[in-house]
Amino acid sequence: MLSGPEPVVAVVVRTRDRPLMLERALADVCAQTFPDWELVVVDDGGDAAVVDDLVAARPGLAGRVTVLHNAESRGMEAASNQGIGASASEFVAIHDDDDTWHPEFLARTVAHLRETGDAGVAVRTEIVWERVRDGRLEEESREVFAPEARSFSLAQLLRSNRVVPISLLYRRSVHDEVGPFREDLPVVGDWEFNLRLAQSQCPIGFLDGEVLAFWHQRPEADGALVNSVFARARDHRAADLRVREEALRAHVRRHGVGGLLYLTGYLRTEIDHLHNLFRESALRQEELLAGQVQAREAQAELGRRTEDLVRRLEERLAGLEAATSDASLVSLLRRRYRRGKARVQAAAGRRRRPGRPAG
């Protein structure tokens, strides 16, 4: 349990039966260069003894960690709200048990919020592709997540979530304006929270440049080690549609369906037009390719005929040479043969030039 002044940052770690991940997450928090933090671990229906043992094995957590055990899983967003409610810090960070930070994450994000007065700040983030082999985590590759992002943008959030929990530090007071995480959403609760945040009067900054957060993904894992975005893809699609449908209905209640009907019809017409243009372009491309194939076939046939003609001329000349002993006549025949051969080959060369198919 904690005692003394409230820490500046509360780090909430949600976990359930993933000791391999939780051990890494605990080490990650302890490695932060910013010292004024508290940790709340929410064990959402997992093995309590395993969680307690992992926490106890970290001397750096002594006196600054609270562990909450749920006998049954309440869900990710309920775990977030539970952890936030068990702390009283100025700033809040949701640190999923399978993700990590740069050691300077808290130091730089806290400094930004202190300097700007922003309500929150997101950071440049990297996806870390990894797999589990023989009980160990092995990194396979990395890529920048949402490289086009330069701000905490509602326009981009309307398409999909561009700020995952590990990427964001925000003021606790944000919840007074936008409310808690929605516990009725089994997944995409972080996206829905970000949508409310982006529509509020809360300014959210963005730290571009060096990557400060790492979103770990394991598409080939199974069981407790898999990411929800892969294991619960159907739930993600259903929850995504639910959030959009709710927002659409709220919009229609205020403004009616007229504008949306017009926009939907206009977009359908434009999409059909683009589809037709694409189809026509594809047909023209097929015709062009067919013509090129025919031209290449004609050129190949011309080459074969030219070679056959030259061969027969050589055979005829050899026969004439054998039939006469007149050296001057043989020389004349040779000169005329060479001129004739050159003309045939030149004509064949002109026919093979690009843009001049054989006819």
TrEMBL record:
Name of this protein = Glycosyl transferase family 2
Q: Which UniProt keywords apply?
A: Transferase
Fetch the SUPFAM superfamilies from UniProt: Nucleotide-diphospho-sugar transferases
Asked if the keyword Transferase belongs to this entry, the reply reads yes
Domain Glycosyltransferase 2-like: start-end pairs:
11-143
Q: Which organism is it from?
A: Trujillonella endophytica
GO MF: transferase activity
Any Pfam family from its record, for instance, is Glycos_transf_2
